[in-house]
Design brief:
65% of the residues lie in helices and 2% in strands. It is mainly α and 224 residues long. The longest helix has 22 residues.
Length: 224
Amino acid sequence: MNNEVFDAAGASPKKPGRRPGRPSGGQGAEARAHLLDVALALFARQGIGETTLGAIAREAGVTPAMVHYYFKTREQLLDMLIDERFVPLRTELASVFQHADAEPVATLRAFVEKLAATVERHPWFASLWIREVISEDGLLRRGMAERFGDERKDHALKRIQAWQRDGKLNPELGPSLVFMSLFGLTVLPLATARWRDERERSVTTEQIAKHAVALLMHGIRPFQ
């Protein structure tokens, strides 16, 4: 006797299936990754606080039960996004400050180029940064601080301070403001690209990165 399952009338055979919302193997990994992508897009578009698990399910075209299978709460989902999406990006950005003999101009340029490349690869990054990181009550900012602290940022700040002590960088610069300036000069233009006119939208990420470093290193004074 085969393993086919018959309906109540004993007529048409039906193949047994898995419980809904519980993909297995590679399908499960793909479904989970897709839900993370959908959550990131919604968070960037309307904010974390305004996005429910139900909204994520509707946007992804799946049942709420499937979302709850992977993420019991929105807070758990946010923790997973931080672990799997933001920490790798943060580590990559911080890597430019790990070289002890690096010069400030080359390092800051590399940081801005990596930042611009990150925005280009991940369309959600810029909008989410504006909504949830620079905002005083941003849930992403709070979650990152609670889970991982500022160890990598502190290392980069110490590198900037060392450059200042060695006379390689303007001592009047505020080390923490250097990061705020670079993020603002790089991410803000990219985040607002769709609002700008056609001529402004034609500016490339490479031009934005070059402009950010030039403005930080030389200000608006003409070369002598």
